[in-house]
Amino acid sequence: MKLEQIVATGIGVLQGKCEGEMAETPKHDASVMARALISAGGTAALSVVDVDGGQPFVTLVNVAADHELRPLLLISDLSHHTKCLKADSRASLLLHAPIGEGDPMLTFRVTLQGVFAQVELDQTFVARHPYAEMYAGFGDFHMWRMEATHAHIIAGFGRAYGVRYKDIVAI
Predict the structure, then answer these.
(1) Residue whose C-alpha is closest to residue 59's, from 75, 72, 70, 71
(2) What whole-number distance in Å separates Cα of residue 91 and Cα of residue 114?
(3) How far apart are CA 34 and CA 29, in angstroms?
(4) Among 2-6, 117-121, 155-159, where is mean pLDDT lowest?
(5) Given this model, what pLDDT does residue 4 score?
(6) C-alpha distance from residue 117 to each of 4, 134, 143, 162 (Å)
(7) Interior angle at CA 77, CA 83 and CA 144, nearest 5
(8) Distance between CA 15 and CA 13 in Å, rounded?
(9) Phi/psi at 157 (nearest 5 deg)?
(10) CA-to-CA distance for 163 and 165, rounded, in angstroms?
(11) Cα 3 vs. chain centroid, distance in angstroms?
(12) What phi and psi values does residue 167 have, to the nearest 5 degrees?
């Protein structure tokens, strides 16, 4: 299923699977869409703490989610962002729905906060990004998995929600 279809149908497919604070609310609906967006994978902006001076550093990465909805990256040891993650594992990922006509600031998006750890290659990533199989075997490429703790969801103008990541996973 294409990302556009997942996001478009995410609310209808997953509606009502959340209880308590988020059940049947706009925050719940946004969380359902965030789950669909994360699950679909694609590309994301990765923000790390720059090893050279401690300033934020942002780059574009491919992302997939494992069976527990943990974001996965396959990145080279030669890249600056990998050096930064090795020095300080705290990071953010920004994923967004396709940008349509009109104001791009109305695009559905979610920012995840958490820490990354290097893990064994997860074939889920290669299944989502088949072209990555070529460099997955290179000695300098390694899989990194994010343990997200918080999500900041923008579901349109005036619809911003802070959500515990475990609540998104539980949907």
Answers:
(1) 75
(2) 6
(3) 9
(4) 2-6
(5) 56
(6) 30, 22, 9, 24
(7) 85
(8) 6
(9) -60, 125
(10) 6
(11) 13
(12) -70, -35
- Burial class, 66, CB count within 10 angstroms (exposed 0-12 / middle 13-18 / buried 19+): middle
Amino acid found at 36: A
Diameter of the chain measured on Cα atoms: 48
Query: Identity (one letter) of the amino acid at 75?
Result: I
> In whole angstroms, what is the distance from residue 131 CA to residue 133 CA?
5
Contact 110, 95 (CB under 8 A): yes
> How far, in Å, CA of 78 to CA of 26, rounded?
42
pTM assigned to the model: 0.87
Q: Give the pLDDT confidence of 81-100 residue by residue, as tens digits.
A: 999 999 999 999 999 999 98
90: which strand partners?
A: 115
Phi-psi region of 106 (alpha: psi -120 to 50; beta: other; left: phi over 0): alpha
